[in-house]
Structures are given as structure tokens and as C-alpha cells.
């Protein structure tokens, strides 16, 4: 019980100490900002304009939209799934009011 109390007391003290010391950092230890130094001889604005121009002119056509897959409908008694080892792959979607029986793999 005493060890738990000591651990909680130590963690509270350390968290208070680190929160107090966050504002005490000196300006010498900070990294220079990215806008001040040019990267490979180019400024950030020039790199942004070049990237924007490349993306506008590119014709590789990335599609962000998700393609909707259409699953065909099965009638009652038709085979609706296949078994691949422990997995069951769906072949079609059963009509409303019926379900694919995983033992017979048919719509009932």
C-alpha cells in the first residue's frame, strides 16, 4: 500500500514539475522556422507553386471516390455462397425476407 502511495506521489510531483518547466525553455534550444531557411535553394512559396502546377497538369487521374460494388440478387433455393476453407464467400444477395443459409449455402 505504501509503495502504491509513493508511486502516485512521485508521478504527481513529476507531472507538476514538467508542466512548470515547459515555459522555461530558452530561445537558443529552439529549431529555426521552416519559412526562414530555403530548402535546396527554393523558398516554401516556390515549392508550393511548383507542386500545385504539377498536380493541376498531371493526367494520372487518382480517384478518391469509393466505387460501389453491385451484388446480384438470388432467388429462393439458389446458391448464394461458396466455401473457401474456413471462409465463406458470397456470390449473391438473397431477396428480401430470405437469408443465406451458411450450412447449405443457399437462400432460404
Automatic annotation (TrEMBL):
Pfam families tied to this protein = CART
Q: Where is this gene product found?
A: Secreted
Q: Where would one find the signal peptide in this protein?
A: 1-23
- Could you confirm whether the keyword Ligase appears in this record? no
The record's listing under SUPFAM superfamilies reads: Satiety factor CART (cocaine and amphetamine regulated transcript)
Q: Which GO terms describe its cellular component?
A: extracellular space
Q: Which GO terms describe its biological process?
A: adult feeding behavior; cellular response to starvation; G protein-coupled receptor signaling pathway; negative regulation of appetite; positive regulation of MAPK cascade
Q: Please indicate if the UniProt record lists Iron as a keyword.
A: no
A molecular function annotated in GO for this UniProt entry is:
neuropeptide hormone activity
Question: Which keywords belong to this entry?
Answer: Disulfide bond, Secreted, Signal
> Record's CDD domains?
CART_CTD-like
Looking up InterPro entries in the UniProt record yields: CART, CART_C_sf
Tell me the protein family, please. Belongs to the CART family.
Mind telling me what this protein is named? Answer: Cocaine- and amphetamine-regulated transcript 4
- According to the entry, what is the taxonomic lineage of the organism? Eukaryota, Metazoa, Chordata, Craniata, Vertebrata
Amino acid at each position: 500500500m505504501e509503495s502504491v502511495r509513493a508511486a502516485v506521489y512521485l508521478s504527481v510531483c513529476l507531472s507538476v514539475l514538467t508542466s512548470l518547466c515547459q515555459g522555461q525553455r530558452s530561445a537558443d534550444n529552439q529549431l529555426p522556422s521552416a519559412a526562414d531557411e530555403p530548402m535546396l535553394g527554393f523558398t516554401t512559396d516556390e515549392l508550393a507553386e511548383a507542386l500545385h502546377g504539377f498536380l493541376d497538369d498531371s493526367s494520372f487521374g487518382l480517384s478518391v471516390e469509393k466505387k460501389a460494388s453491385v451484388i446480384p440478387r438470388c432467388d429462393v433455393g439458389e446458391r448464394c455462397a461458396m466455401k473457401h476453407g474456413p471462409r465463406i464467400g458470397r456470390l449473391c444477395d438473397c431477396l428480401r425476407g430470405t437469408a443465406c443459409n451458411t450450412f447449405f449455402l443457399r437462400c432460404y
